[in-house]
Design a protein that fits this description.
This protein has 435 residues and is α/β, with parallel strands linked by helices. The protein is 43% helix and 13% strand. Helix 8 links the parallel strand 7 and strand 8. The longest helix has 31 residues. The radius of gyration is 27 Å and the shape is elongated. The protein starts with a strand and ends in an 18-residue tail after the last strand.
């Protein structure tokens, strides 16, 4: 079992300290607020949370949990420090890191004076880049040595909800650690031994972004449900019943379906139905800013794709995939069609390969859409991959048609995969097995 110091014994810190001590670790809470320190040492919780008062009282009585205001004492008596201080918003909405920086400096001074190995773990919610660009240099400067050897810094985002925090600690969706190298996560993962959840180790920027993505998604779901409710009312429909039925679809609606960053969406349904809803909202004076911004967001993603291709410097483009998704010949509002139209308008020489698209089989609105946006489609389509390789100095993937390619051994051009390149950084991704 580990000797742990928890810096900041507010809501997150107190729950973390109580649960870790209950699980067998020796924990000292550290805070500048003497009232919080006294409360812990008296067996009382300084924050209100169901079950926490009893947990703190029991752990203090058992000698597994105590508190202090002395950072040096806490560092001297521990091998790993969890930073759980608050990161409130500044007036402009940015993250106020003053408290975190103060703790990092104090820990660094204590490490330097005691010349001991130490693992600093950020539980505080921080935007990607703050740990790497602000806290890491500060810690290294204060301690007087680079990371590695006996000094470690990583993040371990928490996913605790007020009112169910102890249960959330015991049953998290996953245990997430962001580190430079996978082996740096071992001591942090050991803190959660016995908790049955997947262990995910990734780079620190990705780990930090996961926390923000989760909260943004939660907020988006609330706003979406409320906008659907407002629209339902304007149609004289039952909003709660709509969402209740919507949630019964576990295949597409309440699942991981569509939650993969990639290229823009299109097709004959999503854009059309979004326009119908938002137009009705305008006519009915029902404000739906979330739904109203979805198509704008999609258009922006499409523009980014076109810019990515144009910035490549290539003029001979081979577009792989034209329909809005693999396995169909539906070209209506396909992002690949709009991309091709944009590039053609800029003077690019384009050839397109999509074995599912045959001009002889297009008809009705699908054909009309193509005639409007790509009237010379017949001259752009190639029937075989060899013609694509011969033409293109840059291949652009827009759909999973790319997965069907038989790569030639002599193609040495550029590949732009719009399913990945707009949404993935070059950060190193790490992984460990699920226990």
């Amino acid at each position: 079992m580990a000797k742990v110091a928890v810096f900041g014994i507010g809501y997150v810190g107190c729950v973390t300290a109580g649960c870790l001590s209950r699980n067998g670790h020796s924990v000292v809470g550290v805070d500048v607020d003497s009232d919080k320190v006294s409360a812990i040492n008296d067996g009382q919780s300084p924050v209100q949370e169901p079950g926490l008062a009893e947990l703190v009282r029991h752990q203090v009585k058992a000698g597994k949990l105590r508190a202090t205001s002395d950072v040096e004492e806490a560092v001297r008596g521990s091998d790993i420090g969890l930073v759980c201080v608050g990161t409130p918003s500044r007036a402009d909405g940015s993250v106020n890191t003053a408290a975190v920086q103060g703790v990092i400096e104090a820990i660094g001074r204590a490490i330097r004076r005691r010349a001991k190995d130490y693992n600093v773990v950020l539980r505080s919610t921080l935007l990607p880049g703050i740990l790497e660009d602000e806290l890491l240099p500060l810690l290294v400067e204060t301690v007087g040595t680079d990371l590695g050897g006996g000094l470690h810094l990583c993040n371990n985002p928490e996913f605790l909800r007020e009112g169910s925090a102890i249960s959330d600690f015991d049953h998290p969706p996953f245990v997430l650690v962001g580190v430079p190298e996978v082996w740096d996560a071992a001591d942090v993962l050991d803190l959660y031994e016995g908790i049955r959840a997947g262990h995910i180790v990734t780079d620190s920027r990705t780990a930090a972004m996961v926390k923000y993505a989760c909260n943004a998604f939660h907020a988006t779901k609330v706003a979406f449900a409320n906008e659907v409710g407002r629209l339902a009312t304007s149609f004289a429909a039952d909003g709660p019943e709509v969402m209740k039925i919507l949630c019964k679809d576990k295949v597409l609606n309440t699942s991981s379906a569509y939650l993969r960053p990639g290229f823009a969406f299109g097709g004959s349904c999503l854009p059309k139905d979004l326009r119908a809803l938002t137009r009705h909202a305008e006519r009915s004076a029902v404000r739906t800013p979330l739904l109203g911004s979805v198509l704008e967001s999609n258009d922006e993603h499409l523009r980014r794709g076109a810019t990515r291709v144009m910035e490549s410097g290539h003029r001979q483009i081979g577009l792989v995939g034209l329909s809005f998704k693999v396995g169909t010949d539906d070209l209506r509002e396909s992002p690949a069609v709009i991309l091709a139209e944009t590039l053609l308008g800029r003077g690019y020489d384009i050839k397109i390969y999509d074995p599912g698209v045959q001009l002889s089989r297009l008809h009705g609105r699908n054909l009309a859409y193509v005639d409007q946006h790509l009237p010379h489609l017949a001259a752009l389509l190639v029937e075989n991959q060899a013609a694509l390789w011969q033409h293109a100095s840059c291949l652009v993937f827009t759909s999973d048609v790319a997965n069907q390619l038989d790569w030639p051994t002599d193609f040495d051009g550029t590949v732009i995969d719009l399913r990945e390149d707009l949404v993935r950084s070059r950060a190193k991704l790490l992984a460990v097995p699920t226990p």
